[in-house]
Amino acid sequence: MNQRSKTDRIQNLLKFIDRSPTPFHAVQEMSDTLLDKGFVELKEADAWKLAPNGKYFLTRNDSSLIAFVVGSKPGFKIIGAHTDSPNLRLKPQAGYAKNGYLQLGVEIYGGVLLSTWTDRDLSLAGRVILAGKKNPSTKLIRFEQALLRIPQLAIHLNQDVNKRGLLLNEQIHLPPIFSMQNKSAPDEVLKKMVARELKCKPADIIGLELSLYDTQPGAVAGAEGEFIFSGRLDNLASCHSAMHALTESTQKDPATKVIAFYDHEEVGSKTAQGAGSPFLKDVLERITLNEKREGFLRALANSFFISADMAHAVHPNYSDKHDDQHMPILNGGPVIKSNANQRYATDAVSSVWFESLCKKAGVPVQKFVVRSDLGCGSTIGPITAANLGMRTVDVGNPMLSMHSIREMAGAKDHESMIKVFKQFFHSA
Predict the structure, then answer these.
(1) Separation CA 418–CA 83 (nearest Å)
(2) Alpha carbon separation from 370 to 129, 313, 375 (Å, rounded)
(3) Which has the closest alpha carbon to 18: 216, 262, 243?
(4) Mean pLDDT computed over 185-200
(5) Residue 400 pLDDT greater than 70, yes or no
(6) Which residues of 74-107 are buried (b: 16+ CB within 10 A; e: fewer)?
(7) Where are the domains of the chain?
(8) In terms of CB atoms within 10 Å, which of 62, 92, 240, 295 comes out highest?
(9) Under CATH, which architecture does the 87-214 domain have?
(10) Among candidates 208, 270, 257, 297, which has minimal Cα distance to 425?
């Protein structure tokens, strides 16, 4: 691939993330891409008639998605990722007035790096439930203009902030300001604003599921364009690379090729559309519906799962937070993540196998293990491995500022991961 094509790919990634401020938007964007690539949408409640080499996808809750290309023999090649990112979400009755301002009550979703959400140009996005003549309908909404701000207290009134750090109380200090107080009830102001955007009546709005997001678009940065700055790189970058690997893998494969993107990874995955649900297992079983139960179990035993989630690159200002022998760097290639306590599902066999994929793809590979005196995060890898009994490896591209409102990754790494994923879908 030439340099211009690589640049176009990164721009495509950044546009995808910019258009995907919530999991609902991400799934809609990926659904549109899959339809454009000839994939047929399925519904869980319908009977399926799958054709050999057929391309299909389905969604759950508008926030999780599975796509697959039917193979000719038992076995699955699966790449999994997640669609959600830590953020701030509106409470059901969010609006209230205080000291002449209108503010919105928010809840913390996932492990948010709270300080990064202050003094930013914020807006709202999510889904709106509208009343219908027979049944309610759902519409996505994304305000493109800046609407909100969580202003920090001036240093004159908080003179120790640079020494003590910014201490934020989740209930008191995070509600953003979105207007000046007026005669309308605070929630009515919000509803009217949503109604204008959707061109409907405020009375038609019977439900809101909205999140805050940063309006600053993603950017290619660095002296030689070697970095990516954007929100939600964790983990929409992994979704993007896996989806493009699947849609660009035109070579027929005896195994069924699958991508599975879940919501709610950042809050534990134990939901109807999370990795702890039977969503993927049910889909795989329906793909092998013509086989007896034993055939399905044999297919699982002849399968491999790549759990793709972004990895921690070494921070030059905090390198002591890393194990000295495991310091991934940006643009150094995909990272294999291991943990003795099974917070990652990688073992020696799956690690060697992924390394061989990288070698075949001509891509360097790195390894990460958390310091022994620090806690380790987890992924959908161990959950999926436990649900399916399938050989699994946890990998991801290195990044900085994980769980910040604005994250940082290497531009070269994204193309490298796509190459490895395509090798996975093409390999025997």
Answers:
(1) 17
(2) 43, 11, 7
(3) 216
(4) 93
(5) yes
(6) bbbbbbbbbbbbbbbbbeeebbbbeeeebbbbbe
(7) 3-85+231-426, 87-214
(8) 240
(9) Roll (2.30)
(10) 257
Residue 294: band (very low, low, confident or very high) from pLDDT cuts 50, 70, 90: confident
> Is 3-85+231-426 in CATH node 3.30.1330.10?
no
341 membership: H or E segment, kind and range: none
Angle, CA 23 vertex, CA 280 and CA 87 arms, to 5°: 125
Tell me the per-residue pLDDT of 131-187, one tens digit each, with 9 for 90 and over. Answer: 988 899 999 999 999 999 999 999 999 999 999 999 999 999 999 999 998 877 888
Both structure tokens of 143: 């305000």
3-class DSSP assignment, residue 173: coil
Distance in angstroms (rounded) separating the CA atoms of residues 383 and 378: 9
Q: Please name which of 388, 194, 402, 239 lies closest in space to residue 318, comparing C-alpha atoms.
A: 402
Residues 6+ away with beta carbon under 8 Å from 167: none
Q: What are phi and psi of 349, to 5 degrees?
A: -65, -50
The percentage of the chain sitting over the pLDDT mark of 70, rounded to a whole number, equals: 98
User: Which tens digit of pLDDT belongs to each residue from 239-263?
Assistant: 999 999 999 988 777 899 999 999 9
Distance of CA 147 to the CA centre of its chain: 24
The SS3 call for residue 239 is helix
**Gap between the Cα atoms of 397 and 236, Å rounded:** 12
C-alpha span between 105 and 100 (Å, rounded): 16
By percentage, how much of the chain surpasses pLDDT 90? 91
* Mean pLDDT along residues 258-280: 97
**Nearest to 406, CA basis, from 284, 258, 228:** 228
DSSP 8-state class, residue 47: P
The sign of the dihedral angle between the CA atoms of 76, 265, 263, 147 is: negative
CB 412 within 8 A of CB 334: no
Q: Is 125 within 8 Å of 210 (Cβ atoms)? A: yes
Name the token pair of 418: 């796509």
Per residue in 3-23, pLDDT tens? Answer: 666 678 999 999 999 999 999
| The pair of three-digit structure tokens given for residue 132, joined into one six-digit string | 């219908």
Q: What is the pLDDT of residue 59?
A: 98
Residue pair 87/67 in contact (Cβ under 8 Å)? The answer is no
DSSP 3-state of 174: coil
Instruction: Please name which of 86, 17, 24 lies closest in space to residue 405, comparing C-alpha atoms.
Output: 86
pLDDT at 4: 62
pLDDT value for 404:
98
First-last CA distance in the chain: 23
